[in-house]
Write a structure and sequence with these properties.
- By secondary structure, the protein is an alpha+beta fold.
- It has a single domain (about 1-365), classed as 3-Layer(aba) Sandwich (Beta-lactamase), CATH 3.40.710.
- It contains twelve helices and twelve strands.
- The chain has an eight-stranded antiparallel sheet, sandwiched between helices.
- Strand 10 (about 320-325) and strand 11 form a beta hairpin.
- It is globular.
Length: about 375
């Protein structure tokens, strides 16, 4: 149970889409907004979720919905506001893998390069490719799903994790399958990619992300933190309860050093930056067009409900691609249509039984 809560979130859910006319009146847009309000308020009223921040944009309909529901702080009862910072968890993977693809464009590596080029002593390094690390098909064990990690996570919350320690933990556990022969969502993959970025650029990962992505694309409220503190005081507080799943009332906003998540999930951002990011991520422009198309070629999960590409995923049966994220106190999802001008971003300030994907599917149904 604890492992499920502390592992970076990855969710697969069935969904059936329906098509509607994209030409709508102002009255119909208002009705859509009211229906989104109703669903959001219902989720807040019927769950232990303290608060959420929801953004829904459909340019063809003239729909721009951005609203907080519930509270950002259980003590002060402060509302959730649009400009607040948030820990976006595994959405960080899409940033790190974008840098990897930029380095591929720059001929500093290829998707078919073997891991042995960078970590020659890692098990099966001669069989694992960069592509497998990007699309979760390497089979490498997830370091955050080990007894060692769980013990350290709770006994040493401010522990500074190093990439080498993550690799050591992963390498001492069995592969889920032979490299390239399956799909398993493992944070170890992106930790290794973060290490490779540092090796190729001869810079710390936080500086590479800042220079190549945050600064270049004017993501002024996105950060790769190096300690447990938020960079600004205006942030949504995250809540957990490790012993009573009916409460989720313990503030864990700054309870752990984010080095445990590192390249797999440490980023902090706000909803404006996340909207901008997922639209660039899916629409293209940060990497070559040919490589951008390869992002959408991936592995189908055993459940059949998602396809994981190169740092992005798709819910089967929909035209939306993006990512989700979760770590203690925070869960989120960011999705962008590849055929329509639609974007959905959702933040929840808990990690537990209620998931933002559930709301995402309901909103997708409403706007389509």
């Amino acid at each position: 149970m604890v492992k499920r809560l502390i592992s970076i979130l990855f969710v697969s859910i069935f969904f059936i889409s329906c098509d509607t006319d994209n030409s709508v009146s102002n009255t119909e847009v208002k009705n859509i907004q009211q229906e989104i309000d109703r669903v959001c308020d219902s989720i807040i009223a019927n769950n232990v979720l303290p608060g959420m921040l929801v953004g829904v944009w459909d340019d063809t309909k003239g729909l721009a919905y951005l609203k907080g529901h519930g509270v950002s702080d259980l003590i002060t009862k402060a509302p959730v506001t649009e400009d607040m910072l948030f820990r976006i968890g595994s959405n960080t993977k899409s940033f790190v893998i974008t840098v990897i693809l930029q380095l591929v464009d720059e001929k500093k590596l290829t998707l078919e390069d073997k891991l042995e080029k960078f970590l020659p002593d890692f098990p099966k390094a001669d069989k694992i490719t960069i592509r497998m690390l990007c699309d979760m098909s390497s089979g490498i064990h997830n370091y955050t799903e080990t007894d060692y990690f769980e013990e350290k996570f709770f006994s040493e919350p401010m522990k500074k994790w190093t990439p080498e320690e993550m690799f050591d933990v992963a390498s001492k556990n069995d592969f889920y399958f032979e490299p390239g022969e399956g799909l398993y969502y493992s944070n170890s993959n992106t930790a290794i990619l973060g290490y490779i970025v540092q090796e190729l650029t001869i810079q710390p990962l936080y500086q590479v992300l800042k220079t190549r992505l945050f600064d270049k694309y004017n993501l002024t409220n996105t950060y790769f933190p190096t300690d447990n503190k938020f960079p600004k005081s205006n942030f949504i507080r995250g809540y957990m309860n490790y012993t009573d799943s009916s409460k989720y009332n313990i503030d864990v906003s700054e309870g752990h050093d984010p080095s445990w998540a590192w390249a797999a999930g440490a980023n902090i951002s706000n909803i404006y930056d996340v909207k901008k990011w997922v639209e660039m991520l899916i629409d293209g422009g940060m990497i070559s067009d040919s490589l951008q198309q390869k992002r959408f070629i991936g592995k189908l999960a055993p459940s059949g409900t998602i396809t994981y590409g190169l740092g992005i995923f798709n819910f089967t049966g929909t035209d939306m691609w993006g990512h989700n994220g979760g770590l203690d106190g925070y869960t989120s999802v960011m999705m962008r249509s590849i055929t329509k001008e639609q974007t959905i971003v959702i933040f929840y300030n808990i990690q537990g039984v209620v998931k933002p994907e559930d709301l995402y599917f309901r909103i997708y149904d409403i706007i389509n």
